[in-house]
Amino acid sequence: MSDIVITYLSAAAAVLAALAGAFGILLAVADRFLRVPADPRREKIEEALPGANCGSCGFPGCAAYAEALAKGEAAASLCTPGGPAAAKRIADIMGLEVTGFVPKVAVVRCQGGGGVTGARFRYVGELDCRAAAATQYGQAACPYGCLGLGTCVRSCPFDAMILDAETGLPRVLEERCMACGTCAAVCPRNIIEILPKQQYVHVLCCNQDPARRVRQTCKVGCIACRACEKACPVEGKAIHVEGNLAVIDPEKCTGCGKCARACPVSAIGDFRTLRREAQKRKGEKQEAAGQKVA
Amino acid sequence: MEVGYLELAVGSILISNVVLAKFLGLCPFFGVSRRTSDAVGMGLAVIFVMSIASAATALIYRHLLLPTNLEHTNLLGVLGLPVPEGGYVLILKTISFILVIAGLVQFVEMVLKKSAPALYRALGIYLPLITTNCAVMGMALLNTEAWRDPANGLPVHLATVNGFCGGVGFLLAMLLMSGIRQRLAERRVPKALQGLPIAFISAGLMALAFMGFTKLFGIAV
Which residue of chain A comes nearest to B90, CA vs CA? Predict the structure, then answer.
């Protein structure tokens, strides 16, 4: 009896081994004959990318960007999280020259949080700015300003934004921000912009209403008084009032910050000290830019 | 009596839906059903793999595992190897099916990559995911047991159709689920139930609804 069982069991093992062997040979042969030659640079590039899959390069994920790069269809400087370091690595792999990489950062162009502008009505709907914006143009008193429900904060793939408890406004943690533009895309008011880090001065207001109406709703809104224009030392003026809002010409602006000091309502923000200090801290930490984040 | 194609289709898509009646393949069912486009891609890949796997496993089952009888011969017996009275069904069924399905999916993936790059790109990321998916495995096992004839299992052509229909049933469940989840994402859900819990509850209700198909047209699975 036990002899029979052993016979059957060993036969079963032999059958299984034969099956496995057949499939192994089949796969080995298939691997030899069906191999699709892949560009070896593609894999190298993918390794050089941060792997955050944030999409700021405009491709769906790092793998797609690497493929486009290997085919020579994309510029090497598109990866924002990777920064200049990643651009350099990619350029080395592809044998290209590095083209100008401009570090950018998200800027929230509004200072009128709930505490400043107040609300026109009590909003009780979905806690999402997009839903709030669709409800009677939003609950915020300013029709251009931040709704303060933090959709941008939740959308950030790098946790680089927080909702400031004091002001009720989103704040960008610039050291973490990769300028992928996700927050700018979800904001229904379009008050978040991706701007070059070297541009230190930004107009932190988007209100296009005439001064009288701005005064009624917001204490820190641009009232188009042209004080900034007068203060600007640049020849031909780097800041202009267009419509009812001051606009900075990034080409001309030197980031001196005189307009920010001249503004009677403090609607212009000067990020010079903030970013310089951040730069210094970064230098101290000797952080390797563009290391793998995911 | 041989089973009809229509009977198989109704039985496998509605009555004993892989996901909602057999509760197989719940992992991709919840994992990939957040967006309709992903759900469709996954569903198509499952249809594809399930059909091929069903055909291959039915061949193995009939000609390697079952003992020789009127309907089919055991090739091992022909080769002179000892075949137990009940065949190798008990010992080898599950393990040989795992082997066959995994090997086959790998092979098909290679073939697709070489000969149909467009199809490979569409299914490519889902194929490795379902190599060892329990829905595929379960369908292969069900082919051997269900439909009134456990002694023989479904013949190869019917098993293939059954695998295809099982895949269609999976796609149907995925589509329904992704639609529900996309709507759920916009609704206010109590905090404790957000995410997967509410998805599980929805799936349970869907399964209850699918129980209404039992004995549809008098078909017994």
Answer: A12
Nearest-Cα distance to chain B for A9, in Å, is: 8
Which stretches of A152-230 are assigned E, i.e. beta strand? 161-163, 170-172, 192-196, 201-203
Q: Is residue A34 part of a domain?
A: no
Nearest to A141 by CA among A203, A212, A216: A216
How many domains is chain A built from?
3
Provide residues of A within 8 Å CB-CB of chain B. 7-9, 11-12, 14-16, 19-20, 23-24, 26-27, 30-31, 34-36, 126
Contact (Cβ atoms closer than 8 angstroms) between residue A234 and residue A253: yes
Put simply, the answer to whether B114 touches A34 (Cβ < 8 Å) is yes
3-state secondary structure of A248: strand
A153 part of a folded domain: yes
Q: Which residue from A minimizes the CA distance to B101?
A: A23
Whether A117 contacts A207, CB under 8 Å: no
One domain for residues A217 and A259: yes
Residue A77 sits in which domain range? 40-94
Q: What are the boundaries of each domain within chain B?
A: 18-213
Q: Indicate the residue of A15, A27, A126 with minimum beta-carbon distance to B64.
A: A15
pTM above 0.90, yes or no: no
Neighbours of A282 (CB within 10 A): 12
Partner-chain residue, chosen from A11, A20, A34, that has the shortest CB–CB distance to B82 = A11
Does a structural domain hold residue A22? no
Give the Cα separation of B153 and A273 in Å (integer). Answer: 77
Query: Which of B92, B186, B188 faces A15 most closely, judged by CB atoms?
Result: B92
Residues A193 and A204 in one domain: no
From first to last of the 294 residues of chain A, give the pLDDT tens digit: 577 778 777 877 888 888 889 889 988 888 888 777 767 777 888 888 887 777 777 777 787 888 888 877 777 777 877 777 787 788 788 776 666 667 788 999 998 866 677 788 888 888 888 888 888 888 888 888 888 888 999 888 888 898 887 788 898 988 888 888 888 889 998 999 988 888 888 999 988 888 888 888 888 889 988 889 899 888 888 888 888 889 888 888 888 888 988 999 888 988 888 888 877 777 665 444 444 444
Alpha-carbon gap: A73 to the closest alpha carbon of chain B (Å) = 19
CATH assignment at residue A89: 1.10.15.40
Q: Does the predicted interface ipTM exceed a cut of 0.90?
A: no
Specify whether A148 is located in the same domain as A68: no
Among A8, A23, A30, beta carbon nearest to B99? A23
> Which of A94, A128, A158 finishes a domain?
A94
Query: Which CATH number fits the domain that encloses residue A239?
Result: 3.30.70.20
